[in-house]
């Protein structure tokens, strides 16, 4: 749908009106036959039709193009009232800047920011509403530190709230202690398995060293026996030499 023509100040050229809704073009597109439409209007039309609503020429979404620049400039220069005119806004500005103004307009109806509140107020009155809103929150005046809603004042009990908080903290602490305990036990089991593996490896190495030592001692005894035999043979040869 386009902009309500009643909002505009002065004359609006016929060429700047949507051929479907007959209001001033909003986000315009143009067909090859040069008829212009609001984007939402022409897309809705082409769901059920395949021709131009003005001259019945065949058109397709792919054939739609942006408005000619000179027409776009004429459109942007049009002057219109803010949509919040009925609430008291007297602003008149160009179509090009109307969206920016209406996003910031002090007369715009906006929802209350408090959770649970369904009231809508003018932007300029929002601060005053928040000060008295029944859904506003504030810190407990008794010093328990809780944030409460005004509607819950009669139900708020500092002792009960703190007791509940304490129980939650206790439960959380117990869970954390259990998690730390399980993690420590897991680490100890891992270290224990690692130590057992290392002990087994060291035991095997010791046995291997003992075996090597035994072989070396056997070799030493063999060498000593061979040396004695060799010495005896030398002594015998010396005796025989003397006899000769």
Automatic annotation (TrEMBL):
<feature type="domain" description="TRAF-type">
    <location>
        <begin position="101"/>
        <end position="144"/>
    </location>
</feature>
<dbReference type="InterPro" id="IPR013083">
    <property type="entry name" value="Znf_RING/FYVE/PHD"/>
</dbReference>
<dbReference type="GO" id="GO:0043122">
    <property type="term" value="P:regulation of canonical NF-kappaB signal transduction"/>
</dbReference>
<keyword id="KW-0863">Zinc-finger</keyword>
<dbReference type="Pfam" id="PF02176">
    <property type="entry name" value="zf-TRAF"/>
</dbReference>
<keyword id="KW-0175">Coiled coil</keyword>
<keyword id="KW-0479">Metal-binding</keyword>
<protein>
    <submittedName>
        <fullName>RNF41 ligase</fullName>
    </submittedName>
</protein>
<dbReference type="InterPro" id="IPR001841">
    <property type="entry name" value="Znf_RING"/>
</dbReference>
<feature type="domain" description="RING-type">
    <location>
        <begin position="18"/>
        <end position="56"/>
    </location>
</feature>
<dbReference type="GO" id="GO:0016874">
    <property type="term" value="F:ligase activity"/>
</dbReference>
<dbReference type="InterPro" id="IPR017907">
    <property type="entry name" value="Znf_RING_CS"/>
</dbReference>
<feature type="coiled-coil region">
    <location>
        <begin position="192"/>
        <end position="243"/>
    </location>
</feature>
<dbReference type="GO" id="GO:0008270">
    <property type="term" value="F:zinc ion binding"/>
</dbReference>
<feature type="zinc finger region" description="TRAF-type">
    <location>
        <begin position="101"/>
        <end position="144"/>
    </location>
</feature>
<dbReference type="Pfam" id="PF13923">
    <property type="entry name" value="zf-C3HC4_2"/>
</dbReference>
<keyword id="KW-0862">Zinc</keyword>
<keyword id="KW-0436">Ligase</keyword>
<dbReference type="InterPro" id="IPR001293">
    <property type="entry name" value="Znf_TRAF"/>
</dbReference>
């Amino acid at each position: 749908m386009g902009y309500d023509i009643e909002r505009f100040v002065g004359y609006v050229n016929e060429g700047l009106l949507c051929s479907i809704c007959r209001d001033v073009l909003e986000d315009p597109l143009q067909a090859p036959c040069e008829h212009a439409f609001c984007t939402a209007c022409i897309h809705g039309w082409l769901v059920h039709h395949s021709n131009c609503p003005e001259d019945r020429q065949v058109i397709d979404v792919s054939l739609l193009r942006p408005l000619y620049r000179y027409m776009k400039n004429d459109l942007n220069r049009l002057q219109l009232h803010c949509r919040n005119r009925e609430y008291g806004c007297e602003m008149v500005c160009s179509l090009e800047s109307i969206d920016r103004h209406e996003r910031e307009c002090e007369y715009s109806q906006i929802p209350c920011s408090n959770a649970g509140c369904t009231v809508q107020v003018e932007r300029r009155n929002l601060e005053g509403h928040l000060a008295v809103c029944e859904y506003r929150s504030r810190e407990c005046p008794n010093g328990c530190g809780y944030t409460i809603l005004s509607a819950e004042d009669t139900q708020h009990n500092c002792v009960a709230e703190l007791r509940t908080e304490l129980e939650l903290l206790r439960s959380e602490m117990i869970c954390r202690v259990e998690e730390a305990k399980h993690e420590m036990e897991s680490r100890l089991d891992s270290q224990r398995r690692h130590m057992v593996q290392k002990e087994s490896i060291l035991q095997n190495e010791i046995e291997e060293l003992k075996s090597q030592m035994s072989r070396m001692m056997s070799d030493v005894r063999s060498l000593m026996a061979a040396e004695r035999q060799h010495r005896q043979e030398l002594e015998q040869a010396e005796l025989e030499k003397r006899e000769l």
